[in-house]
TrEMBL record:
The gene is kynU. Its EC number is 3.7.1.3. This is Kynureninase. The keyword Oxidoreductase does not apply. Its cofactor is pyridoxal 5'-phosphate. Pathway: Amino-acid degradation; L-kynurenine degradation; L-alanine and anthranilate from L-kynurenine: step 1/1; Cofactor biosynthesis; NAD(+) biosynthesis; quinolinate from L-kynurenine: step 2/3. Belongs to the kynureninase family.
Length: 398
């Protein structure tokens, strides 16, 4: 294990002259990933053809890689599996949890949750019928909103806009106290901070891998099912690879053993190869060290920007316990400001209606990057360099 993040920084392919503060949206390319994927293409797919499913271990990849991610989220071995997209995994977890709590009809979430999670919940409720509904409250009101009408609490641990962090253990304990199940979305916490799904009592957890875990655009998602539910949770999406015996080609579905039943479709072998290369870097570090470095970087960034740019309003909690690994500021011209920053080599992103969002990954971001970024932000704000037509034209991806 290393605490010297100069060593890990050297393992990423970072463009010259760029300060990349958007790894919370799309992680950068690990240097080893291109060769790893190329080897999978040429030596495995190219030479083994279909025999790669057995010879190269493609069929076992989702579970083996799931265990590697399990270490980062505090999961028991054998209870995380890869595949599909995060939205699909949200749907699976919600549907299974609702079926396990059949006398209740309410999914509780918060208004800061990622919209796709809410859309999946709304769609599932429409499918199940008019008695089912999604209830959303302000993030600060989730604890008091948990009552004996709630079937499932679905929360993203770190708010994608503000970086506010929920208390997983406290909210899960309260959910269980009132007879609800807890589904956690770890999209902005896996790889960003220490996560303890087992100790925290989560019933289900899901997450993506293309952010802090650097699997590349469209990288596969993961799902965790607590051991107490592993043999009873019924997958609503009964895909053939979640079958007890996929190659028996039975006409009737029988769920596989444990976490294997949460597999749906054919695993994305090339994307898993890229993720595998990234996880080799994660194997070199401890999440506690990542967290310490992250808090130091975000503290430094907050202090620097607030001193240099009083016109930007901090949206991220100052309290370490309530902060993920990103810092967000508000400004009415947030989109244009971010485009001006990107043009000058500081890459963050914008989230409507007014959030400038900056992610901090100590694996490749250091204090010097923070200071340079603050200086560029100051120049952009002091000179109103964002106030140009080309920076105000919205692109499809913000």
């Amino acid at each position: 294990m290393t605490r010297d993040f100069a060593d890990t920084r050297a393992l990423f392919d970072l463009p010259e002259g760029v300060i990349y503060l958007d790894g919370n949206s799309l992680g950068p390319l690990p240097k080893a990933a291109a060769a790893r994927v190329a080897r999978t293409v040429t030596e495995e797919w190219g030479q083994m053809l279909i025999t790669g499913w057995n010879k190269a271990g493609w069929m076992e990849q989702p579970s083996k890689t799931g265990d590697r991610i399990g270490r980062l989220i505090g999961a028991e071995p054998g209870h995380v599996v890869m595949g599909d997209t995060l939205s699909i995994k949200v749907y699976q977890a919600l549907a299974s949890a609702l079926e396990m709590n059949p006398t209740r009809r309410v999914i509780l979430s918060d208004t800061g949750n990622f919209p796709s999670d809410l859309y999946m919940a709304e769609g599932l409720c429409r499918t199940l019928g008019p008695d089912y509904n999604l209830k959303t409250v302000a993030p600060e009101q989730v604890l008091e909103a948990l009552d004996d009408t709630v079937a499932v609490m679905m929360i993203t641990e770190v708010d994608y806009r503000t970086g506010r962090r929920h208390d997983m253990a406290a909210l899960t304990a309260r959910a269980h106290e009132v007879g609800a199940l807890a589904v956690w979305d770890l999209a902005h916490s896996a790889g960003a901070l220490p996560v303890e799904v087992a100790k925290g009592g989560a019933d289900f957890a899901v997450g993506c891998t293309y952010k802090y875990l650097n699997s590349g655009p469209g990288g596969p998602a993961f799902i965790y099912v607590a051991p107490r539910h592993a043999e009873t949770a019924r997958p609503a999406l009964s895909g053939w690879l979640g079958h007890e015996a996929p190659f028996a080609f039975d006409l009737d579905y029988r769920p596989g053993r444990g976490i294997e039943r949460m597999r749906v479709g054919t695993p994305p072998v090339l994307q898993l190869a890229a993720l595998d290369a990234s996880l080799d870097i994660w194997d070199k570090v401890e999440m506690a060290d990542i967290r310490d470095a992250s808090l130091a970087l975000t503290d430094r960034f907050i202090a620097g920007v607030e001193t240099a740019c009083p016109g930007l309003e901090l949206a991220t909690p100052r309290d370490h316990a309530m902060r993920g690994s990103q810092v967000s500021f508000r400004h009415p011209e947030g989109y244009a400001i971010m485009q001006a920053l990107i043009a000058r080599g500081v890459i963050g992103d914008f989230r409507a209606p007014d959030i400038l969002r900056f992610g901090f990954t100590p694996l490749f971001i250091n204090a010097e990057d923070v200071d340079k970024a603050v200086a560029i932000i100051k120049d952009v704000m002091d000179g109103a360099l964002w106030d140009r037509p080309e920076y105000k034209t919205r692109a499809r991806v913000t």
